[in-house]
Design brief:
single chain, 148 residues
């Protein structure tokens, strides 16, 4: 379903043979507002459904990519463990496995240290705007209103 599939309230009322709700807004504004809100909800619902379907497809493809990438890495490491002893005869397969494991451990430690590194504060602009709003509100509350 696409957003174009959701009919506007005017098209719906014209198809039903009833008068256009925008023509009687001044007389029956609550009905017009209800129609407007319900049409907006229908559009949002349709777009949310489309977005959910798209997101599900992307997540499924990401899972497939992650699994096949992991399988590739495992097979590559197994191949290297078998390849190096055949080229360098002084290395046994378990030596190559230990060297590869050590390299993986080194990468993991470096990644963990980088994760522990302090990152810049998030949403700094939003926080500063909220602080300005708080200051303005507190200033406004302290100032008596005129005309009371």
């Amino acid at each position: 379903m696409t957003p174009e599939d959701v009919k506007s309230p005017r098209a719906t009322h014209a198809a039903e043979g009833s008068p256009d709700p925008s023509a009687s807004v001044s007389e029956n504004w609550s009905a017009a507002l209800g129609t407007l809100v319900s049409s907006r909800i229908a559009i949002i619902s349709a777009e949310a459904r489309i977005a959910a379907e798209s997101s599900i497809k992307k997540v499924a493809l990401a899972v497939v990519a992650a699994i096949t990438g992991l399988l590739f890495w495992i097979i590559l490491m197994a191949g290297l463990i078998g390849f190096f002893p055949s080229v360098i005869h002084s290395l046994a397969w378990y030596h190559v496995a230990l060297i590869i494991a050590g390299l993986h451990l080194l990468v993991a430690v470096i990644a963990a240290l980088l994760l522990k590194k302090k990152s810049p504060p998030t949403f700094s602009l939003t926080r500063s705007e909220f602080e300005k709003d708080r200051q303005w509100l507190s200033k406004t509350k302290k100032t008596p209103t005129s005309g009371s």
